[in-house]
Specification:
magnesium, alpha/beta, Rossmann fold, ATP binding, metal-binding, EC 6.3.3.2, about 190 residues, nucleotide-binding, globular
Length: about 190
């Protein structure tokens, strides 16, 4: 499985790099309309790194609409993420993997996560960077309450994936081309 995931990540990174050069198109509009379909107050975005699709315009708009926006902070390997409140003017500092994180700010628990990813499929599976941070975090949050997770990516990052038992599914995937809502899993 490790070799397969390495190959998938290589292909997805190349596709993402090419897509990133073409711009985000309607991605922000699609993301805002998808988030608006959920009655939540605390929303986790993320600080984009490298060629990830940029959620900052949507995070800014949600903040101006009165939502509490937070971003993930890596505490340690093998641990769930924590989340620190983000505002458009907050002071940032480097965090692990090169993502900026708010230097100060309250720690909160999001009700909805906008998740970066390396690849996705139409069944709602997500391939991340390999640390398992989002899977552990979603498992912890979903044990308490329904916590929607929206993947945010370029359409070119869609690949055929094979989920593992610890993978947490996405409730939607938003791209510059539109929104993918996975069919409910059979019971």
């Amino acid at each position: 499985m490790t070799d397969l995931k390495t190959d998938l990540r290589t292909r997805a990174f190349a596709a993402r790099k090419t897509a990133h050069a073409g711009g985000q198109g309607d991605a922000t509009k699609h993301l805002l309309s998808t988030v608006a379909g959920h009655d939540v107050q605390i929303i986790s975005g993320y600080m984009p790194i490298r060629t990830e699709i940029d959620p900052l315009p949507a995070m800014d708009a949600l903040h101006r609409a009165g939502k509490t926006i937070c971003v993930p902070v890596i505490v340690a390997a093998g641990q769930p993420l924590t989340f620190r409140v983000w505002t458009p003017d907050c002071v940032l500092e480097p965090g692990p993997f090169g993502a900026q994180v708010p230097r100060d700010g309250a720690t909160v628990e999001p009700e909805l996560l906008i998740a970066p990813l390396v690849a996705f499929d139409r069944a709602g599976n997500r391939l991340g960077y390999g640390g398992g941070f989002y899977d552990r975090t979603l498992e912890k949050l979903r044990a308490k309450r329904t916590t929607p997770a929206i993947g945010f990516a370029f359409a070119a990052q869609e690949l055929e994936l094979t989920p593992e038992p610890t993978d947490q599914p996405l409730d939607a995937i938003v791209t510059e081309a539109g929104v993918v809502v996975p069919a409910p899993a059979p019971r």
